Every structure is written in C-alpha cells, then in structure tokens.
Amino acid sequence: MLRKLQELNQDRTLLANAGMCFCVIAMLGLGNLVCRFVLHTDMSYLMPWLLVGVVSYFFLPCLILWIATGKPS
Q1: What average pLDDT is seen over the chain?
Q2: Residue 2 in domain
Q3: d(CA 43, CA 47)
Q4: Which domain holds residue 64?
Q5: Residue 36: which residues within 8 A CB-CB, separation 6 or more?
Q6: What gap in Å lies between CA 9 and CA 33, rounded to an integer?
Q7: Which of 16, 30, 49, 57 could lock 12 by a disulfide, CB 3.0 to 4.6 Å apart?
C-alpha cells in the first residue's frame, strides 16, 4: 500500500504538490470561464466535486505517507 502511494506521489514535496494543485485549480477556473462565456453552459455544479478531487489527489497521498513513514515524500 505504501509503495503504491509513493508511486502516486512520485517523490514530490509538499510545496511541489501545493504548486501543482494551484496550477490545476487555475486551469479548472479558466475552463469554467470558457464554458460560461464562450460555450454558454453552466458547469458550476461540477466545480466543487472537481476541486475536492484535485485537492485529494495532490494532498491525501502526501498526508498518508507523512503519517505512516514520518516524511511526506
């Protein structure tokens, strides 16, 4: 189980995970703006689920590795 979490985390530090999470959230925001103003569709109902998925992808493996091994990467 820990081996799979290490593969999922790919030896990224907490700061690297935070930076990538910020970039993905920014891209989701831009995609939402394109959907709203260019395609005239409302995707706001989907955004909370996507944000939870992105944050959990970047921070849950790091948190579990930190608790289990004592180091986050």
Answers
A1: 87
A2: no
A3: 7
A4: 13-69
A5: 42, 43, 44
A6: 30
A7: 16
